[in-house]
Every structure is written in C-alpha cells, then in structure tokens.
C-alpha cells in the first residue's frame, strides 16, 4: 500500500495526498530466488530507493520503501487484499489466485515478469537419499509434501496424471516439507526454486522428477494493486525501472549477484548460482511473453478444479501497459524472444574451444577462483575437473545441462551416462534425474550409466 508514514496502521488506507511522505510497501519472497530482480537483489542494490529519490526530486515528495519478506505468495496476496502491500512478487499459480481474489474489490494486475523457465524446470520432485523412490511412478500411494496452490503443486498433479499415479498430498510450506521429508514423514517433496537445489546440494534429497519434462513455461511475476496503477502510476513506473536496473545488473555479473543474494538470504551461493547464474535455470526478462500468457490460461482450469480460484478475466488481469511505457521501443521484439540474455560465454581452458552451444555448455567454479570457467561440453567439463584435482585444486561447484531437458544441474549430483557412439568430446552425457538418463539409454544402444568419479577418471 502507498500510505502516510506518519499515520498509525489503522489509518494506512487514507489518501497520501495529505502529506509529502509516501511509503511504498513491497512484498517479496527472499528465498524464492527467481523473483530477486523485484525482491532480494532489488533490495540489496538499492535501485528502487534511488529511483524513488529521483521521483521525489520531481514531485517534491519524500518516498520510502517498506520491504516485507514472506516464504510463499499466499500471505502477500492476503496483505494486498487488506490494502497493506502495494506491489508483490510471486509465482504463476499464486499470482492467478491473487487476481481472482482481488476482483471483488480493489483489483490487482500482473504488470511484469521476474524470472521464468521456458520448459518448467523451476519445479521438481525429490526423495530422500537412499530411498527406493527413483522415479515418479515409485511414489504411487505414498505421501508427498507440497504447497497446495503453488506451481510446484501444479507440476506434481500434471506429472502424476501423465504417469497414471496417485499420491497422498500433504499441504506444507517449503521449510516444513523439507523437514518432513528428512524425518521420513513423507516419501517425496514437490517444491519450487530454490528448495530442490538446496536440499540436493546439502545431501538431503535427490531428484525424482524434473518439471522441464512437462515442457510448459513456469514463471514468477510482479502484481500491483489497481490503486497504485491508476492513482500513483509514477510510483509503479519507478518500480518497473528499478526492476530493469536490477535485471541489467544481474546480467552484467551473475556471480556477483548470486553472492549478494546468498548474503541476504543465507542460501549457499553455489545454489543461488545454479538457478541465477549465466545460462542458469532461471531466465530473467521482465517482458510478458505470448507463451507465458498461454501457460497462465492453461493453469486456470487446474486452480478452479482444486477450488483455489473461481473466476478470472485473464485479458484484463494481465496489464503490460505500464511496462511498455517504462520499457521503450524494443518491448515487442524482446517479448517475442525466449533466449537467455545471460548465456555462458568464453573459451574452454582445457578443450580450447569457444562456447557456442548453450545446450551443452557448462561451468566450473574452483574454490581458489573468484570467477567460473566455461566448458563447451559435459565431457570437457569433466576434463577440467580432473585437471584441477590433479593440480590439487578443489572444485567448489560445477554445472551441466541435462542432455534431454536442458535443465542446469550440479555435475556431482547428476546421473552420468557413457555413450560409446558419441564423439570423444561428447562421450559423457549428464541428466538431472535417473528417469531422464534411462530414456536416453533406451534410444542409444550401448549407452551405460557410470558414476561421477568414474566419468572424471575416464574423460
């Protein structure tokens, strides 16, 4: 909400016109790291405050920002409906629910996108290490924790329907679900970024299902109250331009940005960089793309089915007018593209070739380096790791793309396959899940699964 800083909470709904002090309340999810350009990174860089200072010099008002951090999108929606948050960032399912529940009073609009994955890889299902559950069908009849009404829940339901399986769903917030999985209270956990990567990195889970197998875009976006859009458009304009600032900042130096987000959230920087790094799982682009509109329209029937949403006029809920005005002439051209603006670049130091194909490119992050080095292929990445270890240098993290879905994953947590029919530079093929590896093997006779350490030794 835009409120008078001097008034009590009971009077925050009063008009800001009576004072030169204007408070902008932003709801965000610090650990949902594909919203960072409208949340954690935006807050850490101070871009919004600077944009509002510029606005204040033009209007003569004094603007301040109140940042409110939540673990999921649902409480942000509740606070927006109560008029206590002006602008919020959340996932695709929660933002649709937000628009539906706000339609009876002061409405809300989707005004920009933060981060997205074109295939849906931002949601995953994981199981405990050592569990007999290795693929989605193994969860049939078992307990799975998820946040009902979230995109992760939607991914779980759609994937189970394709697999012809049913599970017992436990509705829990991500942190609670993670504890439930670890304690054995659930056999599976379906959650959104960054929880799957975090738990796998910590050795507390292993991937069972990659949301990219659905091949449906998943996204997070920014929702604003109609009161802000209609009565305080200059504030929304400042917010959107600050989001552009944060997006450019992230693209210019993804590793620096990942470290800042890690410092602010307590998440390991290696996990943040998995998602937000160069060529990461998350593509940061504020434009609202045609495919994303279609994906949101396809989400509505499921949300109605679980009684999370009644009615929503998607055409009026999605409002890119303020975004177009702030963005400029390139809006339509950029909205039509889906290539990651921050790909992996550079020359592979071991194989000696320049990275050209994002579908095979990876990165190695050595513990004694403040930067990452590119790898043109997973096999070349393994060679880099072997060379580093031979020199006594430790590998902090290494990232490879799943050969079928493109999902970026930890090299040491991936399932590796040796394909003798492939060229020497492409001999070793990584996958985010065992199921993905088995599908590859079924189509490539002679391909066999190998351990990570064996793959390094043989590469």
TrEMBL record:
Domain of life of the organism encoding this protein: Bacteria
Keyword flag Signal: yes
Keyword terms, alphabetized: Signal
Name of the protein: ABC transporter substrate-binding protein
Cross-referenced Pfam families: NMT1
Domain SsuA/THI5-like stretches: 82-254
InterPro entries: SsuA/THI5 (IPR015168)
Annotated signal sequence range: 1-18
Coiled-coil region list: none
């Amino acid at each position: 909400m835009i409120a008078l800083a001097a008034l009590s909470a009971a009077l925050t709904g009063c008009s800001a016109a009576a004072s030169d002090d204007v408070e902008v309340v932003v709801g965000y999810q610090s650990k949902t790291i594909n919203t960072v350009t409208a949340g954690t990174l935006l807050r850490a860089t101070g871009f919004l405050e600077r944009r509002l200072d510029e606005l204040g010099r033009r209007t003569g008002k004094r603007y301040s920002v109140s940042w409110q951090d939540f673990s999921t999108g649902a409480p942000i929606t509740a606070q927006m409906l109560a008029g206590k948050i002006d602008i919020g960032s959340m996932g695709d399912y929660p933002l649709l629910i937000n628009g539906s529940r706000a339609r009876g009073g002061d409405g809300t609009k989707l005004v920009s996108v933060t981060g997205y994955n074109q295939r849906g890889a931002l949601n995953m299902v994981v199981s405990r290490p050592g569990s007999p559950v290795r693929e989605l069908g193994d969860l049939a009849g078992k307990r799975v924790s998820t946040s009902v009404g979230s995109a992760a829940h939607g991914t779980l339901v759609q994937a189970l329907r394709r697999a012809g399986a049913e599970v017992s769903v436990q509705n829990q917030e991500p942190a609670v679900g993670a504890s439930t999985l670890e304690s054995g209270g659930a056999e599976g956990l379906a959650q959104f970024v960054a929880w799957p990567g975090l738990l796998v990195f910590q050795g507390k889970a292993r991937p069972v299902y990659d949301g990219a197998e659905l091949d449906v875009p998943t996204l997070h976006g920014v929702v604003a109250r109609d009161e802000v859009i209609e009565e305080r458009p200059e504030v929304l304009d400042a917010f959107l331009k600050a989001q552009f600032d944060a997006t450019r900042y992230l693209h210019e130096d993804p590793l620096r940005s990942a470290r800042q987000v890690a410092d602010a959230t307590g998440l390991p920087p290696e996990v943040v960089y998995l998602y937000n790094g160069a060529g990461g799982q998350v593509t940061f682009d504020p434009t609202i793309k045609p495919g994303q509109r279609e994906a949101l329209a396809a989400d509505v029937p499921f949300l109605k089915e679980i009684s999370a949403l009644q009615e929503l006029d998607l055409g009026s809920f999605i409002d890119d007018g303020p975004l177009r005005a702030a963005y400029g002439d390139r809006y339509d051209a950029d909205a039509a593209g889906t290539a990651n603006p921050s790909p992996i670049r550079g020359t592979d130091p071991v194989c000696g070739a320049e990275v050209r194909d994002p579908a095979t490119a990876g990165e190695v992050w050595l513990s004694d380096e403040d930067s990452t080095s590119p790898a043109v292929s997973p096999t070349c990445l393994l060679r880099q790791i072997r060379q580093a270890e031979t020199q006594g240098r430790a590998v902090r993290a290494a990232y490879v793309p799943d050969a079928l879905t493109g999902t970026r994953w930890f090299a040491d947590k991936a399932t590796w396959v040796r394909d003798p029919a492939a060229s020497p530079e492409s001999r070793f093929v990584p996958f985010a899940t065992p199921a993905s590896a088995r599908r590859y093997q079924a189509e490539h006779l002679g391909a066999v699964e190998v351990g990570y350490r064996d793959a390094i030794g043989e590469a």
